[in-house]
Amino acid sequence: MNNVVDWRVVLKDYVLKNARQNDIQNVIDTIDKFCWTEHELMNIGDRKGKILDQAIQAKQPKTVLELGTFLGYSSLRILSQLPDNALFVTLEANSQSAEIARSIHTYAGAADRIKIVNDLSENVIPHLSEQFHIDTLDFIFFDHVKNIYLRDLKMLEDAGLIKSGTVLLADNVIFPGAPDYLEYIRNNPNYTTTFHEAKLEYREDIRDGIEISIRK
């Protein structure tokens, strides 16, 4: 008998039962409450989420790419800071996570403004420009598999989607860590970059951080 709990499903059910429908901020708060009191999940979380919020507010992007939708938490945080006419694309390789994210986005009243692509990033990035009729990305959020941050950054550069002023925000650069990404971005004269110290989402005992970089 399989007694393994799928906490993604438990979270979805908790949100649909406890959050206010069509209230993005309340859905965000409900997910945070679940992750602090019931079971921690790998969202960016409420503390590092404020750094993400501020970066979006400062840039006011019109084209946004998120790598790693997971269950849709950070998508809602990003969307809540975007103008109505912004294009927001988020990639998720895991089909069940993408399905749950769609359910949560729909419940929050945000599904029509978030384009979830359920595929591997290496399959999607080369076709982003053509698929979504864009020639640049204003803001890119890296929060998927840490050891492919650098590969995907280089793919985005090669695709010509990173231009002067593009903001890159990478989560979990200390834990689990993305050392090759940090080495590349910090030693690349094409970028200015800043590290923001933080604790791991929903934990007090593990050091983590966010790297925010801007293409010159």
From TrEMBL:
What keywords tag this UniProt record? Catecholamine metabolism, Methyltransferase, Neurotransmitter degradation, S-adenosyl-L-methionine, Transferase
Do you know which InterPro entries this protein is assigned to?
SAM-dependent_MTases_sf (IPR029063), SAM_O-MeTrfase (IPR002935)
Q: What molecular function terms (GO) are annotated for this protein?
A: catechol O-methyltransferase activity
Output one GO BP term: catecholamine catabolic process
* E.C. number(s) listed in UniProt: 2.1.1.6
Question: EC class of this enzyme?
Answer: transferase
On the tree of life, the source organism's domain of life is Eukaryota
The family assignment reads: Belongs to the class I-like SAM-binding methyltransferase superfamily. Cation-dependent O-methyltransferase family.
This protein is called: catechol O-methyltransferase
Its source organism is Rotaria magnacalcarata
Taxon lineage: Eukaryota, Metazoa, Spiralia, Gnathifera, Rotifera
